[in-house]
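Rather than argue in generalities, we have chosen a single entry, letters for residues, whole numbers for local backbone shapes, without further comment.
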Amino acid sequence: MSSYQIPAATVEHEQVIRKSRFITFIGHAPDARAAQDFIADIRTRYPDARHVCWAYIAGEPGNTTAISCSDDGEPGGTAGRPMLNVLQHGEVGEIVAVVVRYFGGIKLGAGGLVRAYSSSVSLAMKQLESCRRVAQASLMLVLPFALEDAVRRALQQQGAAIGGADYGQQLTLACTCAQERLETLTAALNALGRGQVQVLMPE
């Protein structure tokens, strides 16, 4: 997936169900470490909470390898998994959800807990603002000095950025380009240089 939506800012939402407080936080988690740091921060802020349940997708929407969840003491399958299910249907990637529960003295039962944790995340998701993450590709261009201006214009037209230039026997440009524009950019450079512009993809 070349681009997808990610959280633009952290969202906080609270609801009370039969005297239990459910405080939900949703934030950005570009990787599993960031997700765990987010969870740890919430846990530190609410040290007296009975349960701090969580779920995350630390990658693109639909990713099934960089996901995890926890019931944190709630009956198995009543918190983390329902939260993760909501995230997986939200079409937003790199996302972490944490629900802090303060028990109100009235047991909700397994079905009630599933509904409570699911709705907590669903309501928070409705408030979430997202932005578009565009996957980037790195490439090296080797070209004659005479083509520098034309190649720079072509890069600019495709929204590509130049990270560095090496003026050796030939000009070498280190560039980044949106993955979804890479094919178009490569075709433009090939047409422009007529074989004189080498497009290299670093491993």
User: Anything to note?
Assistant: The CA atoms of residues 2 and 68 lie 23 Å apart. The helical segments are 32-45, 80-88, 109-127, 148-157, 182-193.
